[in-house]
């Protein structure tokens, strides 16, 4: 009973944070609400005994992606009014996608409670992290490797697209500095002494 109460409490906080992500006027506030949503989703994963997914969600998304989003949002000068103009234009498509997602979630929950069959009990000493790793690296090994290659190509493409060579920037060449000789750098000039 207590676990169900905590689950529904975290679910309510998750729904509130998700709603505030898209309704917050300040982009920084929206990013911070997204961080709250990720932490709450991680807590729900912990309640469902999926510890690895909860830790991965916090480490990967909150620890890396959301910090990057926060820096980008704070460093860019975003025109909020131009962003808000497209809200009403995209609202019908967003409502259709939202209704489909809600229907899918209701179908999953309804199948769990009213579906056929009983859920299997987990044996003592069962580790879902070990089971996830075994399935990921045996049954889906090729898909996992392909996903890694696709992510690597995306990283290289992002670096190549954002790399700009500036002509006005000055740089040092350490190999030329090491090869320099004293005779090339210092010139002794012999000048006659001045007389008053």
Q: What is the CATH architecture term of the largest domain?
A: Up-down Bundle
Work out the number of β strands: 0
What portion of residues belong to β-strands?
under 5%
How many structural units, i.e. domains? 3
The string of secondary-structure elements, in order, is HHHHHHHH
Q: SS-based structural class?
A: mainly alpha
**Overall pLDDT metric:** 80
Unreliable residue stretches:
none
What is the third-level CATH name, the topology of the largest domain?
Four Helix Bundle (Hemerythrin (Met), subunit A)
Rg calculated over all Cα atoms:
29 Å
Number of helices: 8
First-residue to last-residue Cα separation: 105 Å
CATH class of the largest domain: Mainly Alpha
Shape: elongated
Specify the biggest β-sheet: none
In helices, the fraction of residues equals over 70%
Can you identify the CATH superfamily of the largest domain? NADH-ubiquinone/plastoquinone oxidoreductase chain 6, subunit NuoJ
Q: What can you tell me about this protein's structure?
A:
The protein has 196 residues and is mostly helical. The chain has three domains: 1-78, NADH-ubiquinone/plastoquinone oxidoreductase chain 6, subunit NuoJ (Four Helix Bundle (Hemerythrin (Met), subunit A), Up-down Bundle), CATH 1.20.120.1200; 86-115; 128-160. It has helices spanning 2-23, 27-47, 51-75, 80-114, 128-138, 141-162, 174-179, 182-185. Helix 1 packs antiparallel against helix 2 (27-47). The model has no long low-confidence stretch (mean pLDDT 80).
